[in-house]
Amino acid sequence: MQIYHRLTALPAAAFGRGSAVALGFFDGVHIGHRAVISAAVDCARAEGLEAAVFTFSLPAGHTMKGGRLITDEEKHRRVGELGADHFFEPAFEEFCDLSPEAFVTDVLAGLYNAKAVFCGDNFTFGKKAAGNVQVLRELCAPLGIRVEVVPMALYKGETVSATRIRAALAAGELEEAAAMLGRPYSIDFEVRHGKGLGHTLGMPTINQVYPAGFQLPKLGVYVSRVQLDEHWLPSVTGLGSRPTVNDDASSITCETFIPDFDGQLYGQKVTVELLDYISESRRFENTDQLRAAVMAWAETALRLGGQPPEDQMLPKEAGK
């Protein structure tokens, strides 16, 4: 998949074939997003078009759409897995002042030679979100661009959205979040040096920091699993201020203990999936009690073998 970070045209050969374009922000690439992108890919394959995705990037720490669910790199990977040929993510500032008419004429037709566009029924576009699906149909029709509105994915009878997923994470409802994402919730932040307390206690952890603007799950302890060299290892993750050894409640860390692992991961981006919420964070009387609790949680992770519940592995069908 070719990734474009500027508002630019398809390469000449691809432009000549025309494109089917999926439209949206796609944070999380949840089951509703996947339906939109897959519809565009299927159309492109059936009609000899280029499969394109148009989204946009926001400055680091920006929360216009709410706390982010995945990194840009992970978004690229997941969209690429769905079969897109081209991924356009210009900075929001590059096109946010375009009117709906200019967006359709100059971008969809002028840059991508779009023959069909795909979106959800809540899609808005143009300056100050002045355009909606009906406006998109009216503007695309004279240009011969077909507009396909993909039905919104449902979970438990309600529309799947990044907002619902954020709420589920904030409540520690991992099964709910995973069902809407179509996979367990995960992070893939860089491993950083911590204070070394885990080594002192005989249970070294990998330390990751949530960047500004990302959605924090409920603080507490989770059964998790870590991907290392294509293998998944059971683990336990603590997300919080480490109240037993730290008096600063505003200092949030994400520390993962991988039983029986003694490797070097500093500086690497490591994927950690949170599978099940175990306990709220709490202060222990001493580090011996803390260590005993972590080892007990690790036993739970080992007993589960690092495997998520079955219904976290499979996307929910629309309407279920």
Could you walk me through the main structural features you see in this protein, from its secondary elements to its overall organization?
The protein is α/β, with parallel strands linked by helices. The protein folds into two domains: 2-155, 3-Layer(aba) Sandwich (Rossmann fold); 184-313, Elongation Factor Tu (Ef-tu), domain 3 (Beta Barrel), CATH 2.40.30.30. The protein has eleven helices and 15 strands. The strands form three sheets. A seven-stranded antiparallel sheet has the order 9-15-12-13-14-11-10. Strands 1-4-3-2-5-6 form a six-stranded parallel sheet, sandwiched between helices. Strand 3 (50-54), helix 3 (72-81) and strand 4 (86-88) form a beta-alpha-beta unit. The chain is elongated, with a radius of gyration of 22 Å. The protein starts with a strand and ends in a 7-residue tail after the last helix.
Per-chain topology:
Blueprint (H helix, E strand, L loop, with lengths): L1 E3 L7 H6 L1 E5 L7 H17 L2 E5 L17 H10 L4 E3 L3 H4 L4 H10 L4 E7 L12 H8 L5 E5 L3 E2 L2 E2 L2 H9 L3 H8 L4 E2 L3 E2 L4 H4 L4 E4 L11 E9 L2 E10 L12 E5 L13 E9 L7 H18 L5 H4 L7
Parallel strand pairs: 1-4, 2-3, 2-5, 3-4, 5-6
Antiparallel strand pairs: 7-8, 9-15, 10-11, 11-14, 12-13, 12-15, 13-14
Helix pairs in contact: 5-6, 7-8
What's this, in brief?
By secondary structure, the protein is α/β, with parallel strands linked by helices. Helix content is 31%, strand content 23%. The chain folds into 2 domains: 2-155, HUPs (Rossmann fold, 3-Layer(aba) Sandwich), CATH 3.40.50.620; 184-313, Elongation Factor Tu (Ef-tu), domain 3, CATH 2.40.30.
